[in-house]
Amino acid sequence: MDRLFHPRSVLIIGVSTRPENLGKNIASNLIDFGFEGEIHLFGRQPGYFLGHRIHTDFSTLPEGIDLAVILTPAATVLDVVKACCSRGITRIVIESGGFRELSTAGAELEKELVNFAREQGIKFVGPNGISIINRHNGLCLPFMRLSAAEIKKGSLSLVCQSGGMALTYLGMGSSENVGIAKVISMGNKTCLDESDYLEYLRDDPETEIIGLYLEGINDGRQLLARVAATPKPVILHKANTSAQSSEIASSHTAALANDDQVVDAACQQYGIYRAKTFRQFINQVKSFSLPLMKGDNLVVISRSGGHAVVAADVADEYGFNLVPFSPEFVDFISAHFRAQVIKPGNPLDLGDLFDIDFYLTILEQVLQRPDVDGVLFNHVFQPDVEGEASLRLARTINELSRRYDKPVALCIFAGAQAVNQLKKQISFPLFIEPAEGIEALAVSRDYARRQARKISAVVPVAGQYDRQTVAAMIEKARTSQGGLLSLDQVLDIFRAYDLPVLPSQLLPAGAPLPEISAPLAFPLAAKVVAGSLSHKSDAGGVRLGIENRDQLQRVYEDLTGRFSSLPDYRGILLQSQAEAMVEMIVGGRRDAAFGPVVMLGMGGIYAEIFQDTALRLPPLDENLIGDMIENLKGAAILKGARGQAGIHRPSLDRVLYALADLLADFPAIQQIDVNPLFLSADAGWVVDGRIMLEK
């Protein structure tokens, strides 16, 4: 990988002297950005460009070229790659389009390309991308002209599936004083994908922040493993979400755990910062350009009282604590106020103080306090009279922030021209409003907390499971039941995996009503068993509160009369009825990108109405389950509220661990519902459920 970003020599293939030729732009970029290695050009017609010979025969090229860049029609690319290979060039950037993104024929070309590269040990970027940039050594390979003055050197590396998005972030970063280390436009990511680049950037000394723009994730688990292994913050802008979330779901779990929610859960679990907008992405990058905020204690300093009030409201929203000032410090500040009409506090309104240099004295004393973790500084100024003083203020604020290793989010309020002028004179990011600055400090604080709490490497010991029985039931369902598992079979699978299932008994179709004996006992519930009847309650296939045998006889006759004509009718399931408890839904499904995902939600049969769920990726541990509970709106109920005891955590943990293990042990299982799961203060019972197998 290092040869891609640190080549000693670059060969550009597809260059001509025609005005419209794009290959020339690549050569121009290399020269403009100060690439110090050798530059070689290749095309169909001989000539010269910027003093460099355009070769037309590979045999005339020098030996030992490190990197080739190809910008020729798709149909020619494989032959060009073979020619490169014959000259010992095994690191290639393919900018050409016209592959699988265009047509079936293009997909075949791409397949041939991949097969040849794999056989020869060739690694390539693309195809169908604008290639790569290493801002620190001048390697700039996009086929459109770029400005070295606009793209500043820095510590952000971008890995983008879209070349247009890479350019957008370059432009936004430039306007926000965000410097660039590396840029990778992956294109079709046929050979190297985001996981490969993330592994490289993890150890890249020039990269401190990693930004990803992805439209699709092929191997989510590998990506998360790379994230877990890097000490650097990772920001993800994941697009292309609407099609999946609009699909009609076939189970509770599918409806409540769609693809985009799984991405959100993976980001939360592995400490990835997810941005939904361009502005949010850049703001999160800016937050990591400051020292980390290591706690909740915040001081707001503002030249305007109104701005201070707005900042205090946002600080409260993000859970910050505005630490009070000591009487001595208040007196010290008050002594410098002109009219003595403002009482100093936190937030600190400096509206009666016009000594900009004294603001820095205040800031330094604030940063020296051990109980202060960070500062939001609102600066309103008049450019014509305070421009130079404001520039000095901004530069010194940055220096003090670095000296005391505490973040100071500087929000500037002036005309657009004045703000832009100030940005050009400094090398660090500014913020445009208090909400943006405080959000950035919150991102920094949360990252510091996540760094302190690493993902647990301890995996709970699996229960005493009867895997053989479950394997046989799944095989039977797939071979002779059309892939459908009936309720009684589902409950038997749950029992085989040590779930606390309520006592039940199946009355097969046509069987007489038996005597009720232990472990069954009145009151009972009666449920129609048919694999095709997914929502039994809605169809009238569930009866509760059956108190005696006469009532049971009437219910039995009614249900069999209504439902026995179903083609997959198996009978009536009698089940002991538990006392009223907290109703929950627990589920799991197999995500195409991330594999097994486990869900916890409030509401039981009303889960889709409440939409109160939390997802995590196995393996689970107590901390992750605790996070799932905390993410629910009903968390207070589960932990105990208004004099009521909380739920029995061991029962909940037992169910979640077992479902995760079921998904891991049996790849044929696509979705699982435990719905409802009843939980009290001292027990838990699985009442109903569903398992869907792969088609």
Structure description:
This protein has 695 residues and is of the alpha/beta class. It has 5 domains: 1-126, NAD(P)-binding Rossmann-like Domain (Rossmann fold), CATH 3.40.50; 149-289, Succinyl-CoA synthetase domains (Rossmann fold); 291-452, Succinyl-CoA synthetase domains (Rossmann fold, 3-Layer(aba) Sandwich), CATH 3.40.50.261; 503-577, 2-Layer Sandwich (Dna Ligase, domain 1); 582-693, D-amino Acid Aminotransferase, Chain A, domain 1 (2-Layer Sandwich). The protein is 38% helix and 22% strand. The protein is built from 24 helices and 29 strands. Helix 2 (23-32) links the parallel strand 1 and strand 2. It is flat, with a radius of gyration of 32 Å. It starts with a helix and ends with a strand. 43% of the residues are buried.
Strand order of the largest sheet: 3-4-2-1-5-6-7
- Provide a count of the helices: 24
First CA to last CA: what distance? 40 Å
**Assembly type of the shown chains?**
single chain
**Rg on CA atoms, Å:** 32 Å
Q: What is the CATH homologous superfamily assignment of the largest domain?
A: Succinyl-CoA synthetase domains
CATH class of the largest domain: Alpha Beta
CATH fold category name of the largest domain: Rossmann fold
CATH architecture term of the largest domain: 3-Layer(aba) Sandwich
The stretches of 5 or more residues where confidence is low (pLDDT under 50) are: 244-257
Whole-number tally of structural domains: 5
Indicate the proportion of strand residues: 15-25%
The level of helicity is: 25-40%
Structural class: alpha/beta
Number of strands: 29
Shape: flat
In this structure, how is the largest beta sheet organized? 7 strands, mixed
Mean pLDDT: 91
